[in-house]
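User: We ran a pulldown and think these components assemble together. Before we commit to crystallization trials, I'd like a predicted model of the whole complex to look at. Sequences follow.
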Amino acid sequence: MELDEKELWRCGPGPKTRAGIWGEKMNERKPLGPKPMESAATSRGKKADAKPAKLSREVQARLGQQLRAMYDDVVNQGVPDRFTELLNRINDNESKDRP
Amino acid sequence: MDEQVRKAVLGAVPSLRAFAISLCGNVDRADDLVQETLLRALANIDSFQPGTNMSAWLFTILRNHFRSEYRKRRREVEDSDGHYAESLKSQPGQIGQVEFGEFRDALAQLPADQREALVLVGASGFSYEEAAHICGCAVGTIKSRVNRARTRLAELMDIDSVDEFGPDQTTRAVLASGE
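Assistant: Here's a predicted model for the assembly, 278 residues in total across the polymer chains.
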């Protein structure tokens, strides 16, 4: 789904952010005004005089994609046995404690 | 244990682990953190309000426990044993290996506040409001942390435009086509 750029920036912050802010839907993104940039000012050596970081939609989408890929990689590992066993153990103990 | 509770708790484990790994930077410690979280949660299950978001409740407990116990130990050895990298070896095919490694390193360098905000909103799928609740701060604070996090990530990875994302033509083509 491709959003019109203007449309994208016109949308104010809304309550719906389930899809994540970096995905295809970025209607949560504020129009870029002045914003905190201390990290850019203090930590950037190589490109200190580069234009203030206004990340393009593509860059944001790409970073978001990577973040989710990393996260989902762990999620897709499912539930390791130790946790199923842990809950079973707790269950057993509860039954024993019951009169 | 109520079967519904059991299911909800187990169902939350995969994302709790992913969140914990992003906090600890180490799979073994993350799993310990998740285990301690579950024990705490189940010991206090009476304080869980049925009908509210179980996952957010567990994330809150995990995050607070991490803050009080784990953070002291810091991420000092970060990934000296390579566990983190190992857990991620099956990384998805659409992102190049080098780029993926760069991203992981950059994420690890973010200040903890920014990283957790970014992960909660950008990967765990929580709303800003939920993330604010989990972190015990204002919604505006979360928004600002997320903004700073992604700006910083781009800096760390030295990205000004998507063209600098490495030689991954396929992905760029997909992006360009608006897929």
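Confidence is low (pLDDT under 50) at residues 1-53 of chain A. That may be worth checking against your pulldown data before setting up trials.

User: Thanks, that helps.
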